[in-house]
Known about the structure:
alpha/beta, Nucleotidyltransferase, domain 5, Actin, Chain A, domain 4, 2 domains, 5-stranded mixed β-sheet, 3-stranded antiparallel β-sheet, 8 helices, 8 strands, Rod shape-determining protein MreB, MreB_MamK-like, nucleotide-binding
Amino acid sequence: MGASLVVVEEEVKMSAIGAGINVDLPRGHLVVDIGGGTTDIAIISAGEIVVSRSVKVAGKSLNEEIVKYIRSEYNVAIGIVTAEKVKKNIGSLVKYPNERSIQIYGRDIVSGLPKEAKITSDEIRNVLLSSFSKITDVVIEVMENTPPELAGDIMKNGIMLCGGGALIRNIDKYFFDIFQLPTKIAAEPLGCVIEGTKLYEKTILRKVEEGVYDDQQKTYLEGLS
Length: 225
């Protein structure tokens, strides 16, 4: 493609930068990036990823679980678009005041005719909690492998949530209740990776001027040939 410089970085690191974290400081930060295909969890300190894990539970799989649930409980086949609508409108991980239900429309899997169903917040919450338990298991694994010297930083800085999955209602309270750590949602969770990459460009240009990437780039390109 004619690129003069190729730099490969972890997506979760870009998310952290886009969320406003100064990753270059020698302080530990725990980042949970719930994207479309995977959820990436990492401890970042001094510009590097210290510990990281990834699990294939994220936006798409959550939608698929909602589709499966409605099919099995109501004999109604719906599409991913409808499942996404249900997740956005009534999805939550913790009970909230004035919970409501939503009418959905799909195809009766027995008769093949159009059919409607009324789905409650409580039903969808149970579906989401089942999937999120896999994410929390991985977060626990990451924290168990965190170097002791960064444990205090994680206690102080808490958890930063990024990605589209961070928009699920009460997700911050869910993580706080489990881990008893301060939990923040990025100001613009959907755009964290893009914004972080834009900001990181300045770091790349600075390193180019310092000659940091010369040997790295040569080694990387030789490895591709």
